[in-house]
Task: inverse folding
């Protein structure tokens, strides 16, 4: 490449800004809402160990590849893949990888915003003492009233999308960078406060033992695959967010060191969240394998019966909103960047248009919990008979689109992109470190992703679906 491309959107002020932004993108509901309950469902320590291995062997190499592609292209994911495919003399159809990532992020944000709206609502309920002394039935009723009222859900969903658009509209340095500069450190402070509270709860050691003492009799093959899939989701891989953030990365910043730092911080948040949540669960005699309701149906019971529970419950849901907010701005950024580049819009116009469309698609999730709760689009497909529109959106994005996006990124980075170009962009020479990355992305990562994907597709009994079964 004769001349380095330049981003028309600006660049991060430095390595720290990118680390905070990418960590904010990676740290989200997946760390604080999803990780604790899937760890609880899959036996705790053994699952955590497998998850950490997946982060190291799969997550970090693919993150390096995605950041590398973004920085070399310096454009939105769609235009980056178009430019890099042309540079490598490859098929122009590789730009569909950019479209797929952008679509995945867009769909994820459409339901992510609704769930973040629940956390917003719970801030005010917790601060108002609504959970104080509440029984399990009472807390469940509070949650059911919230999700059963479409007008309330729409209001909170709207508020969260407005929060997201306000940040993104301000641009890279004035909006994205300024937001993460304050929100990400605040997120860590809140987590440490909650961990301090858990330390004094009387069940901290029990929580640590659950998280860090592996009992491999409690993990199944499916649990290994869940850990592998969650590594993609939690690091925001395959959805365009890391690629577009990489396009704003200064030239001389080390992609390898930065990616490792982001993965470590993201994992630290997940573990700190588990260390805050499980002691509270155990000291109150609750079930760590409660499932998705652990945050919204179980923890409010605990907060309602502990000293200072209203304060710490409020802090917890503020933390949840902060985590969702830093992720949401990265999910919408690829679409905003594309609109600015290809439609000549200002960032304000692009943010409003992308935000409004996302908000409208979010109505599918809103109504999935009330008016359309009995609507099951794939009632004729085995294993999906009871899936709502929200269930299908969540499943399609997290279990199909992200692993396929990660697979395509791996294939392009080492099978299509010229080796000299990746050596130049990663800037760590052609020594042992580069060769290890190249080997993992060329062979290990694709095999692991294919295993994840095959595990997903085997759930659909196509023989029964097509009437071929005996």
Result:
């Amino acid at each position: 490449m004769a001349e380095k491309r330049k981003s028309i959107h600006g660049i991060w002020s430095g390595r720290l800004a990118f680390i905070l932004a990418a960590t904010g993108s990676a740290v989200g509901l997946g760390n604080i809402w999803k990780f604790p309950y899937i760890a609880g469902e899959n036996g705790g320590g053994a699952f955590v160990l497998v998850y950490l291995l997946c982060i190291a062997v799969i997550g970090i190499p693919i993150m390096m590849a995605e950041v590398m592609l973004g920085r070399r292209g310096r454009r939105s994911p769609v235009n980056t893949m178009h430019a890099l495919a042309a540079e490598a003399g490859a098929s122009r159809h590789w730009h569909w990888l950019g479209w797929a990532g952008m679509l995945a992020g867009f769909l994820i944000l459409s339901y992510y915003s609704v769930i973040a709206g629940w956390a917003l609502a719970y801030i005010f309920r917790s601060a108002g003492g609504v959970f104080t002394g509440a029984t399990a039935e009472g807390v469940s009723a509070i949650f059911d009233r919230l999700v059963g009222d479409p007008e309330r859900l729409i209001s909170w969903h709207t508020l969260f999308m407005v929060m997201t658009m306000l940040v993104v509209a301000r641009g890279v340095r004035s909006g994205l960078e300024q937001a993460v500069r304050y929100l990400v450190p605040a997120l860590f402070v809140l987590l440490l406060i909650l961990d301090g509270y858990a330390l004094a709860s009387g069940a901290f050691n029990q929580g640590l033992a659950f998280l860090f003492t592996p009992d491999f009799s409690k993990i199944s093959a499916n649990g290994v695959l869940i850990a592998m899939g969650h590594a993609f989701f939690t690091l925001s891989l395959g959805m365009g967010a890391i690629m577009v953030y990489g396009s704003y990365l200064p030239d001389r910043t080390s992609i390898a060191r930065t990616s490792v730092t982001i993965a470590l911080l993201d994992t630290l948040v997940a573990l700190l969240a588990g260390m805050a949540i499980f002691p509270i669960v155990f000291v109150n005699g609750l079930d760590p394998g409660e499932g998705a309701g652990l945050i919204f149906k179980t923890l409010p019971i605990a907060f309602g019966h502990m000293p200072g529970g209203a304060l710490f419950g409020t802090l917890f849901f503020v933390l949840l909103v902060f985590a969702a907010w830093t992720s949401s701005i990265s999910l919408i950024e690829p679409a905003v960047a594309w609109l600015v580049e290809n439609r000549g819009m200002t960032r304000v116009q692009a943010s409003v248009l992308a935000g409004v469309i996302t908000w409208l698609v979010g109505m599918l999730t809103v109504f999935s919990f009330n008016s359309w709760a009995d609507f099951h689009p794939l009632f004729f497909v085995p294993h999906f008979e009871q899936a709502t529109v929200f269930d299908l959106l969540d499943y399609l994005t997290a279990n199909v689109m992200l692993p396929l996006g990660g697979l395509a990124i791996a294939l392009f980075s080492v099978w299509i992109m010229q080796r000299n170009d990746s050596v130049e962009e990663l800037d760590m020479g052609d020594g042992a470190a580069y060769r290890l990355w190249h080997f993992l992305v060329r062979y290990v990562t694709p095999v692991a992703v294919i295993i994840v994907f095959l595990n997903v597709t085997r759930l659909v009994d196509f023989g029964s679906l097509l009437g071929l079964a005996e």
